[in-house]
């Protein structure tokens, strides 16, 4: 692997800055029965009158057990969107640096690049929706700080070949961000098992999809302890609120229920893939490793509008590269999927 120097990637002001030290950072021993008069809180207990744990230790400890990643290699954020934004702010210099993204993919990478004034070099996926590793590496220069890989990819629903990700991890001196929002629906295992091998590997997960907690906003980042320490320096002190920490913990402790739901969704996904293929105007159903299905239809705009008329909202992905005339269907409950299929079969 080409040599990796983390210190060369950190934005200069971030390397220099001294982080805000909150009351809860300065005194951490929550277990003792102490009188807390240090944070200007309202003393009357209503369950959330105290500031939340800025390091979310209890939640991280449980995640650490479930995901088998040490606590000091975990950072939590207000959704993965916050985690992604922290990565931009820590590791790229506005107006100077660039990142590489692989369309068609998740829209937030380019939005965050734009808000942070970082150039986004787009290298199209191949026709099989796989990274064109050679073309990606050709776009790399000294100012390239991060490459974003979404696997399983949104909206194409496939996972990227491990050899391609590995080749990029070995060849690139910057950070490889693997967004695993849909990993719990995929056959392959998480790249989190490879963190010790690759100091430039950053993995993003979320409780928004398989864990069914989109409403509480909890994003997860796994990386080396050094990378996590830098992100910790710039994260807002109380970025994960108390209610979110509580609900997330309950859910992480209820692994069985999560697994049951995932299995229901996987079963429905396979059924839905098959029946979609029998719909008249559906031309192709792409294989899925996620909780949604991308399908090519005769006329996506027309079919999208017709479905809206019938009260069913899907995602029209036609404007995305390589996705002409495609619709993206999230796998719903058996009842919702039946309604979808019935509606599709009624369209003319
Ligand atoms: C849904 C999704 C996310 C989740 O974002 P949150 O902010 O955690 O809800 C992240 N990445 C991809 C590719 C997604 O599709």
From TrEMBL:
Residue positions, PTM N6-(pyridoxal phosphate)lysine: 209
Cofactor(s) essential for the protein: pyridoxal 5'-phosphate
Catalytic reaction list: L-histidinol phosphate + 2-oxoglutarate = 3-(imidazol-4-yl)-2-oxopropyl phosphate + L-glutamate
Entry's Gene Ontology molecular function annotations: histidinol-phosphate transaminase activity; pyridoxal phosphate binding
PROSITE patterns on file: AA_TRANSFER_CLASS_2
The protein's annotated pathway: Amino-acid biosynthesis; L-histidine biosynthesis; L-histidine from 5-phospho-alpha-D-ribose 1-diphosphate: step 7/9; Lipid metabolism
Transferase listed as a keyword: yes
Class of enzymatic activity (EC top level): transferase
Keywords on record: Amino-acid biosynthesis, Aminotransferase, Histidine biosynthesis, Pyridoxal phosphate, Transferase
Enzyme Commission number(s) of this protein: 2.6.1.9
Gene3D superfamilies (UniProt xref): Aspartate Aminotransferase, domain 1 (3.90.1150.10), Type I PLP-dependent aspartate aminotransferase-like (Major domain) (3.40.640.10)
GO BP: L-histidine biosynthetic process
Domain Aminotransferase class I/classII large: residue ranges: 45-344
Family: Belongs to the class-II pyridoxal-phosphate-dependent aminotransferase family. Histidinol-phosphate aminotransferase subfamily.
Self-association and partners: Homodimer.
Protein name as catalogued: Histidinol-phosphate aminotransferase
UniProt source species: Leeuwenhoekiella nanhaiensis
Gene label: hisC
């Amino acid at each position: 692997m080409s040599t990796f120097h983390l210190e060369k990637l950190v934005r200069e002001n971030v390397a220099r800055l001294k982080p805000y030290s909150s009351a809860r950072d300065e005194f951490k021993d929550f277990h003792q029965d102490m009188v807390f008069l240090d944070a200007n809180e309202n003393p009357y207990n209503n369950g959330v009158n105290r500031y939340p744990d800025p390091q979310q230790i209890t939640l991280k400890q449980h995640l650490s057990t479930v995901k088998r990643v040490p606590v000091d290699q975990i950072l939590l954020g207000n959704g993965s969107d916050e985690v992604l934004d922290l990565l931009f702010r820590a590791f790229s210099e506005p107006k100077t640096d660039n990142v590489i993204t692989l369309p068609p993919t998740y829209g937030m990478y380019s939005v965050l690049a734009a808000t942070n004034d970082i150039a986004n070099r787009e290298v199209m996926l191949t026709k099989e929706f796989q990274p064109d590793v050679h073309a990606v590496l050709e776009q790399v220069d000294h100012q390239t700080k991060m490459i974003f890989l979404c696997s399983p990819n949104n909206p194409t629903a496939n996972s990227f070949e491990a050899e391609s990700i590995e080749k990029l991890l070995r060849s690139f001196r910057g950070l490889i961000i693997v967004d695993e929002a849909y990993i719990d629906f995929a056959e392959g295992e998480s790249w989190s098992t490879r963190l010790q091998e690759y100091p430039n590997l950053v993995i993003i997960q979320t409780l928004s999809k398989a864990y069914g907690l989109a409403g509480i906003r909890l994003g997860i980042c796994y990386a080396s302890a050094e990378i996590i320490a830098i992100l910790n320096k710039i994260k807002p002190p109380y970025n994960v609120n108390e209610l979110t920490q509580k609900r997330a913990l309950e859910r992480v402790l209820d692994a069985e229920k999560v697994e049951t739901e995932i299995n229901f969704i996987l079963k429905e996904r396979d059924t839905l893939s098959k029946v979609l293929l029998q719909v008249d105007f559906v031309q192709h159903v792409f294989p899925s490793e996620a909780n949604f299905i991308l399908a090519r239809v005769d006329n996506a705009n027309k079919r999208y509008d017709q479905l809206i008329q019938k009260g069913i909202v899907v995602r029209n992905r036609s404007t995305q590269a390589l996705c002409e005339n495609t619709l993206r269907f999230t796998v719903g409950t058996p009842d919702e999927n039946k309604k979808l299929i019935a509606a599709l079969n009624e369209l003319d």
